Amino acid sequence: MEGGAQRFEKLRAWLDARIGLEDLVKIARKKEVPVHRHTVWYYLGGMTLFLFMVQVSTGILLLLYYRPSAEEAFESIQFLMAEVQFGWLIRSVHAWAANLMIFTLFVHLFSEVTWFSGVALMGLAMGFGFTGYLLPWNELAYFATKVGTEITGAVPVMGPFLGRLLRGGDDVTGATLTRFYGIHVAILPAAATALIGLHLYLVQRHGMSVPLDVERSGGAGRRMPFVPNFMLRDLVGWLAALAMLAALAAFFPAELGKKADPFLSAPAGIKPEWYFMFMFQSLKYLPGHILGIEGEIVGILGFGLGGLFLLLVPFLDRRTARGEPSRLFTWIGIAIIAYMLLFTYLGYTASATK
Amino acid sequence: MAEHLLEPDSSRRGFVNWFLGLSGVAFFLSTVYPLTRYLVPPQVAESTAGTVTLSIKPEDVKANSGQIFKFGSRPAILVRTPAGELRAFSAICTHLNCTVQYRSDLSHIWCACHNGHYDLNGKNVEGPPPRPLDAYVVNARGNQIVVSKSA
Q1: In CATH terms, is domain A271-354 a member of 1.25.40?
Q2: pLDDT tens string B100-149
Q3: What stretch of H or E contains B79?
Q4: CATH 1.10.287 domain range(s) in chain A
Q5: The pTM is what?
Q6: d(CA A74, CA A59)
Q7: Which member of B41, B91, B98 has the closest CB to residue A146?
Q8: A353: confidence class by pLDDT, cuts 50, 70, 90
Q9: Which of A64-78, A321-335, A337-351 has the lowest mean pLDDT?
Q10: A23-32, A154-163, A340-349, range with greatest mean pLDDT
Q11: How far apart are CA A217 and CA A40, in angstroms?
């Protein structure tokens, strides 16, 4: 098969002349990954990226059947789930991959160095979750969106304007659905793609973060080449994620519930997606007024400041910036995670109907 | 001589830079302004109906029960107290906008979203709601119930 090899060589040379293939190969060969006992966390980034690609492809498939209007949205998904072959599978994979992506992203966030692009991507992922949740136009989504946009509306000064901007009017209506649809399928994907590009570029530029304790005990002793050693291991992670997705989608297909009706009461036992649960449960415990300010405004300001604090950690935590361990910030981090876990647990167990 | 030549030159350059900068700002504003205005949804005329007539027979509303009805474009709740009195309130929870319901087991109004409780006068009595529900005036007229905003 000498002709085949020659033809391949010609193709390679042709590509190299046009896109600089040789340079790309050189970069890929040079890239190395530090090997230490926390190396396993590096795979979460790749897994998140894989789940994002799953979301883009299943999302495009869903677009072929989905109809973004208050009159037709619910019915179009009913049709997708009941009539379209494997429609249930595509939708369930989309719903589950969203949840897994938030999870892997959350774990990944705490083990990496390019903090700002990471936090921004987390924000985008939650935006995806919030806007996508409304699209089936069912009862739970309707009230979750009412509450969510009202929370935006309670932000001091800019709130009422932002609330109207987000809802596309004074109430959650078909106009909100159209707006969320546009945000979910066009604005956020564009922003996420740009940010992921920036994030990957920064990781290439600064190298992968090595945990402090490893750094202090002499740094990572060994390094492994990215191609093919790390890439193949990454691939195993992708396959594991895919297997988990397939199992979850097949055994726990996404539910649809009842169609939203603005003239029905919010159903008992209503709750948001698990990653909003700790905030939801906190809002339940806040009384009507705290020191003369409405309770929910105190809560919203609290979460806003918490998010701002999270974003500014690299500036506040001078010790870690100098390469020393910072006990204070470790404890603050642990306290935040413990708070989230406790309130999420309460959200699922505390009686909601007392 | 050389200085004399440079002077008008650099001021001309400064003017051109200033002019370009100003055009840049004008271009930016003339793009951003219509874009922002486009994104802000237009005001839709609020339903100004001060009165709604429900075709519900007053005797069909059982004591210790409640139901949601349309008051213009917003939901409202009609309640018959255990004592037999008809009352109506806005059904929009003052906490975060959910739609409230009547709890026969508690004999008062409740919001499922964040566990807010209101008594039979619409007053917030427990949980996160910061204000009472807006109360309406209810009149039973033969086979109809007329609900109106208090004047």
Answers
A1: no
A2: 999 999 999 999 999 999 999 999 999 999 999 999 999 988 888 999 98
A3: strand B74-80
A4: 271-354
A5: 0.86
A6: 17
A7: B98
A8: low
A9: A321-335
A10: A340-349
A11: 18
The alpha carbons of chain A give a radius of gyration, in whole angstroms, of: 23
**β-bridge mates for residue B124, sequence order:** B118
CATH 1.20.810.10 maps onto chain A at 36-263
- For a pLDDT cut of 70, what percent of chain A falls above it? 97
Q: Which chain A residues touch B if contact means CB-CB below 8 Å? A: 143, 146-147, 150-151, 154, 161, 164-165, 167-171, 175, 262-270, 280, 283-289, 294-296, 352-354
Structure tokens at B8: 């008008």
Which tokens hold the place of A136? Answer: 């089936």
Residue of chain B nearest A289, judged by CA positions? B130
Average pLDDT, chain A: 88
Asked if B78 and B89 count as a contact pair (C-beta separation under 8 A), the reply is: no
Classify residue B150 as left (phi > 0), alpha (psi -120 to 50) or beta. Answer: beta
* Homologous superfamily, domain A36-263: Cytochrome Bc1 Complex; Chain C (1.20.810.10)
Prediction ipTM score: 0.80
Span A202-217, pLDDT tens digits: 888 877 777 777 777 7
Amino acid at A161: F
Among A147, A154, A354, beta carbon nearest to B113: A147
A263, A294, A298, A343: best to mutate for the B interface, most B CBs within 10 A: A263
Digit-coded pLDDT (tens) for A321-341:
777 778 888 898 899 889 999
Residue B1 has a pLDDT of 47
